[in-house]
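User: Okay, second chain of the day. Same drill as before: sequence in, structure tokens out.
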Amino acid sequence: MRPTPLPLAHGPTPLESLDRLSDWLGGPRLLVKRDDQTGLALGGNKARKLEHLCAEALAQGCDTLVTGGGPQSNHCRMTAAAANRLGLECHLALAGTVAEQPTGNLLLDHLLGARLHPTAAREYYEIEASIEAVADEVRAAGGRPYAIPVGGASVTGALGYVDAARELTAQLAEPLDWIVVADGSGGTHAGLLAGLDGPTRVLGIDVGTRPDLDKRVPELAAATATAVGRPAAFGGSRHRCQGDTPCPPGDGEIHIDHTRFGAGYGKPTPECLEAIRAAARLEGLILDPVYTGKAMAGLIGWIREGRFTEHQSVLFWHTGGAPALFAGGFSEWLTSAT
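Assistant: Same drill. Structure tokens below.
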């Protein structure tokens, strides 16, 4: 039996209409699920996953959380905060180059007192390997580590979005046609698929983190659904949303748009800038340049390309990430043009 999840997130998070953004785009009906307001260390979707992950860590007698990501990882920031709430140590394996003057999420990692381990890792599975290496170091020093994969993208972490799907269903008067969410490590997308009933489809907007999303999302969705005793009909057919090729409806299909991340992870695009400004100036909604800005750019692109119709209902799942707006380079990019 799985341990009871810990109360780390504020909830239920608000469900709001985006009427002005919808009018600007000429439809469809748009809503937003505000998981940027989960409360833990400025909020974000990882709080839901950490409720389950940390419960499992405590049940296993662990005294240290170990995870990793890029220097601007939202997941690392929130894992450090969860560790502090629970009286655990936290070690973070950070990819790439760590700036001498920390900004954004990295500044918050320092504030939260996490032990930082800069690594030479750059690719997704190199970061995963560095997490295991740091866990081995903690174990060798006498600690009891609990290793969390990038983004908390395990069955245990995805259970947080089975819970979220149920929460959303209770807030809705009628089913949605689509949910749009940023796809980094794939855990949020997979958890929603495992938890949703009815005709709602989930579109993941690839932000350039993980090279095997098409394989991993259906596998993780199926494993998560099995873990909670639900049907696991995912992966029988998968559709890569490329270019102008439409994504057809169909039960069990996995919809991932791989065309929106531009030059790569964390590298903004003009469409991302437009989306961030539109959400801010029409709705007072703050998005980030790494995840939600690109996801909103994908949603806007699908409307303009006729993939979403004016009569549909589309929900944008806001996964948080605002600290990245204050990271080095992004402020100049945001203010470079009016």
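Residues 236-240, 242-251 have pLDDT under 50 and may be disordered.

User: Thanks, on to the next one.
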